[in-house]
Known about the structure:
Layout: H1 4-18, E1 23-26, H2 31-44, E2 48-54, H3 62-72, E3 77-81, H4 83-89, H5 96-118, E4 122-124, H6 129-134, E5 159-161, H7 169-178, H8 204-226, E6 235-249, E7 252-265, E8 273-274, H9 279-292, E9 297-302
Parallel strand pairs: 1-2, 1-4, 2-3, 4-5, 7-9
Antiparallel strand pairs: 6-7, 7-8
Helix pairs in contact: 1-2, 1-7, 2-7, 8-9
Amino acid sequence: MFNPEQFINESIQTLQETIKGRALIAFSGGVDSTVCAALVNKAIGDRLIAVHVDTGFMRKHEAEQVKNIMESMGLNHRFIDASKEYFSALQNVTDPEEKRRIIGKKFIDIFERVAQTEKLTYLVQGTIAPDWIESGGELRDTIKSHHNVGGLPDKMKLKLIEPLRDLYKDEVRKLARSLRLSISERQPFPGPGLAIRILGEATKDRTEIVREACYIVEQEIEKASEQGKMTLPWQYFAVLLPVKSVGVHGDKRAYGDVIAVRAVESIDAMTCAFSNIPSDVIDIISNRITNTLGDSVNRVVYDVTNKPPGTIEWE
């Protein structure tokens, strides 16, 4: 039986014994990185710098939310807008594994620049068990390379610290509750962000489309949950597909993009089942997406695939 209080106390002691200098934590504002930051902050205090990198692939209003989280936790923090770098690095890239590797390497490049300026020795990441299991290695096949595992260079200047490496998401949520963190129930969001919710090239224009679609999906599902129409899924979002479909815009033929809506139930992210969203909620989501993004999107579909055979994210 997992004991969060025991894990917290043991982790703080281990971190104090391990980290002898100053450390940088990759802070996304998600459950894993926030729990990790709370533990390391308790262990070494101001010797920790939390760094959030805005890749340009964040959800709507996410940058402001992350800043608020870091400030509310009293973290010594830095905020870096690297969106131009990421859009440039991913130009003409369509392969999902290559996307993940480029994004992971770019994170490390930025962290090493910060580390050199701030004279930091350690890199702390909120890596959890599904990250390295799915990334493959040894006898494991690569399902998908998580940016914080498969994207790491062979030689890295910073010493890597991963306090949550052997935990699963449900255990990390228990830690968040014990630490009284406001993000304990926040839905997962992938490190590469919206870049892997865009099948094909992740351009700035295509990112804006999926960002707005994700925002609509989140708003309407959360509203339906608050109204008692459905339980809040484990994860829920939109994906921009690399296909066009024929539709009608006004009284004219349209040839537009397709958005897939994905919502799943899970405990540890290793398996999942698609959520049963009420048809009236799907109808509202579909109408809002096509009305809001009508110049580019003319069709919305709902993904009813479990894991396995699918994965939670599409890439």
